[in-house]
């Protein structure tokens, strides 16, 4: 086999297997990474991720079709890979920041349609794996895969044999789905089911609050307020302002339960007889220290007890973080353990750091080209701290560049 070369500077690539089982080619010359796919006895470069310092000065412009590097591919090999590799449908050069936006746009792709890289329905969920590949789910339960630079890789309908919903994307690239009785481990790239695993009993119960996230260890934290723990609670929480007993179930990357915590939210929200409906937990995040954050939205228009609640690794309440809430949304943990808050009725994101809560407007992204995201429906964080966000039929990767965004 011929040696693999960097598609940026031509330097030799050294193959390294990551902890998640990915094969990555590292360039000893410019420091960039290449995602490698092993096909039969050949290795093919399917993605080129430039080094942190940016594109090397002598690097050629990215072509419209991925550059294939390997032994003996030939015309037939290229044609066989074409449905997966596709064509680029965007300008791969990072765009200049809008003077009114705190973000620098890295790519902006999508739009409604049936062409490769377009969305058949409104994109609603986004997730990023450890190789910075992006998974997007639309409202029709179709899945779209994009590379670290926004290039379209593949799409497929909800995997055959599954009847449930998207839960999380594990760092190694496995998509976890659930029908409340079972977990399905699905290959992110192809949509093929790799494994079926029974779910914990509580997942099969009707829940008045549900959320999931990936843990720092690469497993899953499942949050539920199941009726099985609340036999005296009225259905759906009507007639009581107090939250029911809740449970956080931690699973490892093999989907085996490792521990659980209970009675988190009742510590944080006291009963208020003037409120008819209990507040509803909708999102969860866990940081590197094991602290747990639960995002809670009001069940009653006059309920101001909601926001982001922080608990320590043992489930003890620490504090409530007040944020602006207009409807429903989610929280996302960034690599630096800061939190991003998204609300589907807002175009701005809220950034929770040690300094407090700051507002970051996204409307300036793509505005001059008619590619603004509008309200943000979902956010995920890349390893470098930049964000993948979906809204307005677009998938956008952007990095925060202004430190003086609105407080």
The whole-number mean of residue pLDDT values reads 82
Percent helix, as a range, is: under 10%
Strand order of the largest sheet: 1-2-3-4
What is Rg?
22 Å
SS element count, helices? 2
What count of domains describes the coordinates? 2
* Gross morphology: globular
Structural class of the helix and strand makeup? mainly beta
Unreliable segments (pLDDT under 50, ≥5 consecutive)? 48-94
Q: Predict the CATH topology of the largest domain.
A: Neuraminidase
Structure summary, number of beta strands: 28
The string of secondary-structure elements, in order, is EEEEHEEEEEEEEEEEEEHEEEEEEEEEEE
> From the coordinates shown, what is the CATH architecture of the largest domain?
6 Propeller
The H-level CATH homologous superfamily of the largest domain, spelled out, is TolB, C-terminal domain
Strand content: 35-45%
- How far the N terminus sits from the C terminus, by CA atoms, comes to 56 Å
Quaternary organisation of the protein chains: single chain
CATH top level label of the largest domain? Mainly Beta
Largest sheet geometry: 4 strands, antiparallel
What does this molecule look like?
The chain has 407 residues and is mainly beta. It has 2 domains: 13-85, no CATH class; 103-400, 6 Propeller (Neuraminidase), CATH 2.120.10.30. The protein is 4% helix and 40% strand. The chain has 2 helices and 28 strands. A 4-stranded antiparallel sheet has the order 1-2-3-4, with no helix packed on it. The longest helix has 12 residues, at 74-85. Mean pLDDT is 82; it is low at 48-94.
